[in-house]
Amino acid sequence: MWPFSSKTKPKSRARAKTTKPPAWDTQRTARGLKVVGGAALLLAIVFGWDPAERALNTYLTERSALATDAANVVLIDQPDWMSEVVANELRRLVAERLTPDRLDQQGVAIAAEAIAVNAWIENVLRLRRLTDGGAEVHATYRQPVAVLQGRDGFFLVDNNGIRLPGVYTQAQATRIPLPLITGVNRPTPVPGKTWNADEVEAGIRLAMLVQAETYADQVIAFDVSQRDRQGRVRLVMHTAKGQVRWGLPPGEERAIEHPADVKLGWLREVASERGTIDAGGAIVDLYTPAIQVSKMP
Q1: Which of 118, 158, 160 is nearest to 137 (CA)?
Q2: CB atoms within 10 A of CB 255
Q3: DSSP of 170-197, one letter per residue?
Q4: Count of CA atoms in the C-beta half-sphere (13 A) of 237
Q5: Can you name the residues that pair with 125 across neighbouring β-strands?
Q6: Which secondary structure element, helix H or strand E, spans residue 223, and what is its range?
Q7: Can you list the residues of the chain whose pLDDT is less than 50?
Q8: What pLDDT sits at residue 262?
Q9: Do residues 239 and 219 lie in contact, with contact meaning Cβ atoms separated by under 8 Å?
Q10: Cα–Cα separations (whole angstroms), residue 289 to 31, 247, 271, 279, 285
């Protein structure tokens, strides 16, 4: 059948030969290709990103999985006074809470929190994982300044009267090279909490003051058990053969007694003249208007 309608006349051959094909629109084609390419890329992102992301995370996790050992935990600026027993305890706290996944930031936060509540730690500044699987701890620490005899044992305290970890026997306490404070009869706080007792603060204050003196090693114990009629703490320093009755805590003399620097000067004189601050085994009173020496009962 003839392909044209009967109402349409076929073009002549001559006219057909002279008809030119339409020109190629390159800009329009480029725009079309960009649209098609963008659509293809969008489909690839929608349907292919999740599997790719999972594969990438799996790869990174496998490559970064490295268990942390306590020996690989570094305490930056570890104090000279800190024993390896305490240092290893802190390192172990960190290592036990870090997962092998080095990308696990939650584990880092948990480890930082665990070490922050330890009584040896004053403040955690930073905890950072290392590429070799170890970790760095940047922190400030509570330094023990005295041994305190409580109701149920001997304990370490810092300069603010905060109890530090550990309970010691009398034999152990005597080997610790720190001043001994006795006569505390208040309940023992948990590690990291302050000893809620004015006598503890007074004993620490005097102990820190005397430690700077050349005769400091003559003091066996700082006794904080005594009080006057007004309920004020009266400090006594026990020596090998005698005692020094100091009186009110340093800074609390209130014009009733001589200030601490005067009392320290008196002790230097006694030690220079009599060899020891207890005047060779006597009772030395410093809370009186003038220094007094009397025999032991």
Answers
A1: 118
A2: 6
A3: HHHHHHSSS-EEE---SPPPPTTSB---
A4: 32
A5: none
A6: strand 221-227
A7: 1-18, 33, 36, 41, 43-45, 59-60, 62
A8: 96
A9: yes
A10: 104, 12, 19, 18, 10
